[in-house]
Please model this.
Amino acid sequence: MIYLDNAATTKPNERALSRAAAYLTEKWQNPSGLYRAGLSLQGELKEARSALLSPVADETLFTLTFTSCGTEADNQALFGYGRRGNVVTTAGEHAAVASAAAELKNRGVEVRFAPLNGDGSVNAEALLSLVDDKTSLVSVIHVNNETGAINDVNGLAKAVKAKSPRALFHSDGVQAYGKIPFRLGREIDLYAVSAHKIGALKGTGALIRKKSLPVRPYIFGGGQEGGERSGTENVFGIKVFAYAAEEKFRTLKEDFTRLRAEREALWNALDKDIFVRISPEEGSPYILSVSAPGLRGEVLLHMADDRGLVVGTGSACSSNAKHRYSRVILACGADERTADGVLRLSFSPQTTAEERAAAADILNAAARELKEKTR
Model:
């Protein structure tokens, strides 16, 4: 099987799993316990927190709260800090932010959506025009999960604060963390990350938060995580997350360069009489979104699957949605014919040149066959 749906989830890193195995079999105790083993695990969590935070942020300015996933982290940011005035976000957000924003609107908070550029990045000028002195929160995705477009969140956060100093800035960093080189600027207040996108396990995520912000928990209970997120910590999942992050950041720049070349090679090998490109060249090297206008992307997905190639059609979290066309792709300006033919090909550091070449052959053959059938 050739797996090119890594933006949806990644294969767990075997080295990270092996290193963390003791937290299932030996160090399984409650980290909130006052006995020696519990206190020791608190120290282990502190180490994991630092391992995840230090590659992207100044630990004197930021802290990190463990959650069950990136979606929970996004929800904690929006429901915790978007309580007054208006919230500004974009038409290209992952469902974790878009659906939370819709719920905020149901609760009486005004929500404003900035339009997208053709590649899926936010129109910065339009975004800033929506920000005023009543804006409580601005949320901009760092890497668009459907097109791979990279938003300059540090620059946008700085511009937002210059216009409205009281506004907080949040970013969904799920497709950026461990994949593209960056460090959080001091103008960013909240940043969500997810474990299973970088070779760790489903069921673990984190919200990076500016230390100067007030604590506003989303889940209440026993007061774990310093009162920021109740619920007994998933120590095993957290340690796998930290170990997988160590692996990712060790080779991040090399992977970035190599996968950019693989992405371009795959695009160059696709039949240009059938496929058009949606992803920008300057976007994340981990995502290549294309379309076969006039053909059903979902049908192509199944045809590729039958031939041993796994790809996506967009956000996996939207696969159960009632709408036929991706709202994000339509917001990029694509017509329905193009939006219907979208395929998302997403890479990992384990993707090989041989797999990339075979994937192009499979997609070309499937698309030509389907095109012939639909004549």
Summary: The first helix runs from residue 14 to 20. The chain is about 40% helix and 15% strand. The chain has a mean pLDDT of 94. The radius of gyration is 21 Å.
